[in-house]
# Entry
Amino acid sequence: TAVVNGEVVVAGAFTTACSPSPTGFAPCPTGTAANYIMAFNVDTGAIDPDFTPQLTDGPVFALAAGSGDTVYAGGAFTAVNGTDTGGIAALTVDPGQSDDGQLVPGFNGITTSGRVNALAYSGNALYVGGAFTRIDGKKYPHIARLNATTGAVDTTFKFTLGDPIEGALMV
# Structure
């Protein structure tokens, strides 16, 4: 979950979402398609009908709010809106605008050999953790730092983790 530009972005292994009833908690009258990720207005709870990125092959496991009305998503997905992203994507959160839910221009998805479980944004760095061994064809087992603007791997980041115990590592 991340709060960006007056909206709460939520992600996971789901395919529908429902805005709350105006009178409070109630059964969902009508579900809205939500392909592993959706956004709703922080004040009203209304689902943003324009934030509809289409993810291919898997859910989102991590979100991180970025700068400039951006949210980073990481997971097991392979593409967003038909563009190969390899489990890492930067999306625009811009309610009512044509770029809402679209890939951020200039941020190039990095192909991973596994899935992204964790993201953290700091300054111009995007830290990526998960069950992967390679990013952008280079060996980065389980953790890497990317340029938050371009998505390029920061080769000066030399932090490494040992091999995880199966089922025990959740970075």
Q: What stands out?
A: The CA atoms of residues 86 and 111 lie 4 Å apart. The longest strand covers residues 115-122.
